[in-house]
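Hey Z.,

So I finally got round to the flavin-adenine dinucleotide thing we talked about over coffee. Here's the setup:
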Amino acid sequence: MPARTGEEYLQGLRTEPREIWMCGERVEDVTTHPGLANGARAIASLYDMQCDPKYRDAMTFVSPRTGNRLGMSFIVPRTREELEARRTMMLNWARTTCGMMGRSPDFMNVTFAAWNAAADYFGRGRPEFADNMRRYYDTISENDLVLTHSLINLQRSRHVSGMFNLQEGTALQVVKESSAGLVVRGARVLATLGPLADEIAVYSPRLAQHTDQHSPFALNFALPCGTPGLRFLCRDTFDYGRSHFDHPLGSRFEEMDAIVFFDDVLVPWDRVFIYGDVGLLNGTAAVTHSSAHTSHQGAAKNLAKCELVLGVALLVTETLGSSHLPHSDERIGELIMYTELMKACMRAAEADAQLDEWGVMCPAPLPAETTRNLFMTAYPRMVEILQLLGSSSLMILPTKADFRTPLAGQIEQYLQTDTATARDRVKLFHLAWDIACSSFGSRQVLYERFFASDPLTRARALASIYPKKEAMDRVLDFLARDDTTP
Ligand SMILES: Cc1cc2nc3c(=O)[nH]c(=O)nc-3n(C[C@H](O)[C@H](O)[C@H](O)COP(=O)(O)OP(=O)(O)OC[C@H]3O[C@@H](n4cnc5c(N)ncnc54)[C@H](O)[C@@H]3O)c2cc1C
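And the result:
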């Protein structure tokens, strides 16, 4: 089946029953639920884009296996041109959502494309797992399925790091093995996009060794979201059912986060990719290079976000008449720097891309991963800059309805500025507020701080691939220069 349309995606969500809970109620249909429907529509618009004749060539590629046109993020890039084509596609999607849907389907698609190419890695212990991976990639790419993922175990305490914190009864583990598959029990966080996905992938970026290297916690598998025993518990929605004027981002891009409970869920053997092998689990992201590929996707999302915040900041200063002030220049200059750094890292990751041992054109890991680490602190700072530039105007926010009251005349008169009508000012500042002040905006900051793991883990991840010896040798060479001073 070729790349899906938005309606085909929504139809898939309607016809696959799943157990989703929110605010004390079971959600019967995510495509009509007031807290989720707009997010589903946003994802659907991404799928429509890939079927639009204007974008078709940029958004899809021809499957070498079936001849079907598949979503471009499923491509296994073999050349630099294909890597760049994939970035163009990801950037098109990211710009559509202003970078506000970090878990758009391309995130998981590039992961499984990398794993498919490196399928033999998964077969190192048990050859059948390599075949499982290849078959699964074929299934999701040919059916254009949407995946969520949950990597982190809920932790009952933080006395030890998450990597070792595997309490029985909380962390997800295998409780039974049978000829049908594995039975798993436990709780995972945080399945962003969970209620809007067709499938859930479960793996782990970090796990301590266990006896004989085998662990019932070492797992990599995928399941349909409607699998019996699987329950998604959503946070409250940040889509308050307001107009796009009042709530421009939250009313469009609520991607939702959910806890996932696994209540003795059967994982059929053909959906298992790693079981028990801690070494394989720990090495997955680095050896298959899936981490570099997801960073590449993240860089596109970051760039779209930078472009949005920079554009809003420029309009804010123009609207308020503060663009001539030195402090505005300083703050805008900082936003330009983040935007250009993001572009530069993305371009460097592509320019220095190399074929890896799996024959995949892999983005250069260092510049790609740098985009993740940089954004953990850059994005909160970008939001802070919007607050500093916007000040009380971020609270001068009459709603669309206020413009239809007897106060409309006063609003139009007093809220206009030298450069903007009251309506244009208020519309712009609703957007700035939704980036910098709303609950939707706060969640974006939290997302950028943590979605790719905690800051210490990220710092260690970057340090682990940095050629430290080069840096030290340069200093040692300097220290070894002849001392010609008396
Ligand atoms: C909005 C959002 C969306 C997300 N989406 C997804 C998703 O789609 N899929 C997914 O799998 N995950 C997702 N995550 C979860 C993300 O992977 C985790 O938040 C991240 O790995 C950090 O884990 P944690 O939240 O348990 O934080 P913790 O591990 O508790 O860390 C919290 C803070 O405490 C510090 N800390 C932790 N342990 C110690 C210790 N022993 N000593 C000292 N300091 C310590 C950390 O450095 C950090 O600053 C998402 C997170 C957020 C916020």
